[in-house]
Amino acid sequence: MATNTASTATTRAADGDEGPGEPTLAALAFQDSGFDGQFLRVLDTIPTGGADVGEAFITARRIPDGDRDAWNAEWNALGERILADAEKSLAAGHRVSAREGFLRATTYFRISGVFMYAPPMDPRFVAANARQRDAFRRAVELMDHPFQQVTVPYEGTELDGYVATPPGPGPFPTLILVGGYDGTMEETYVAGGVAALRRGYAVLMMDGPGQGAALVERDLHFRHDWEAVVTAQVDWLVARPEVDASRIAAMGRSWGGHLAPRAATAEHRLAAVIADAPQYAPGASASLLLPEEYRADLDTGDADELLNSVVRAGMEQSPGLNFSVGRGMLTHGCATPVDYLRELRSFTLDGLADRIDCPVLLTTGQNDPRIVDAQSLFDALTAPKTMIEFTNAEGAGEHDEAGAAALFSQRAFDWLDTVLGR
């Protein structure tokens, strides 16, 4: 297993102390922060071929703030138009144009369903997942480097995925991409996979329980012991001749910023871990979704009917809360909001972080509300560790450094190259 002498000091990615009036990337196209954040997520894929500026902005300007039906309809319509154009290019023998179109359509189909995470599954949500998968697989058929659809054995069933390698014979250092709450393995290609392949890494992209096809088609839900997922992936990778088994790393982004380090607490064949939006004990704040006077009741189980009615009333008043709780209920397989809040509390690295024995990189965005306990995770780590804060001044202060994909890739992969001795 690779080791290094990475600094145990927290570092800032830029010098200076920015003031409260500095510009940020907020309100690019929407006043609704949820809509605008998801729009920035689309723009973040531009450097790796997942979107284009004009078609994304024009689509956003057709969508009224907060109108989730219009959001679905407009992004889906864009996906269909770009897909049709790609098919025309392919029919005429223009493979590169077709591949680029299929990749952009993948993003637009996926994002069309993002606000429909709630039980029971909306048929439009199911369709969005299927359409983005199918468009991506059309792109895969046209890739210039080796790219395979694969299945990995997992607890009596299997997980679908893709493995891609750069040109050449290998064996290659290999990166497992761990996605987030509402991502898909297809998204991870443009949110880490392309950058890794450009630098000579093989890449494993996979929907784990609670994500993409594993959720929609296999009815698998998130689990706190994510090492069960990553161990299955590592078992599969080490048997492949194109993989350098001594240099397998994991990179988790968004919710994956908790899942990837959790996996490393027990899966010690990982040579390095990157946690973008690192979260130490995200479940500890579950009770904060309740009014203060009801929080103690979450522990007793004596007032669940009341608590559920309180949360549902809050969901009716707050689109953000409605999205967060609905998405959580669906992806965790919970029947009620209170069931979800209780389930979420099992997601913690408290008492576990010191079991990680490989180098760890934590990356945070200055404005990201999800990284409130990133410093706690950094402090609890005893392995070689580095933390980088990306700032508003760099245009990189949002969740997952959205809008600064090239800068994130530069710093994250420079670190990974170093600790893996490349």
TrEMBL record:
<protein>
    <submittedName>
        <fullName>Alpha/beta hydrolase</fullName>
    </submittedName>
</protein>
<feature type="region of interest" description="Disordered">
    <location>
        <begin position="1"/>
        <end position="23"/>
    </location>
</feature>
<dbReference type="InterPro" id="IPR029058">
    <property type="entry name" value="AB_hydrolase_fold"/>
</dbReference>
<feature type="domain" description="Xaa-Pro dipeptidyl-peptidase-like">
    <location>
        <begin position="156"/>
        <end position="278"/>
    </location>
</feature>
<keyword id="KW-0378">Hydrolase</keyword>
<dbReference type="InterPro" id="IPR000383">
    <property type="entry name" value="Xaa-Pro-like_dom"/>
</dbReference>
<dbReference type="Pfam" id="PF02129">
    <property type="entry name" value="Peptidase_S15"/>
</dbReference>
<dbReference type="InterPro" id="IPR050261">
    <property type="entry name" value="FrsA_esterase"/>
</dbReference>
<comment type="similarity">
    <text>Belongs to the AB hydrolase superfamily.</text>
</comment>
<feature type="compositionally biased region" description="Low complexity">
    <location>
        <begin position="1"/>
        <end position="13"/>
    </location>
</feature>
<dbReference type="GO" id="GO:0016787">
    <property type="term" value="F:hydrolase activity"/>
</dbReference>
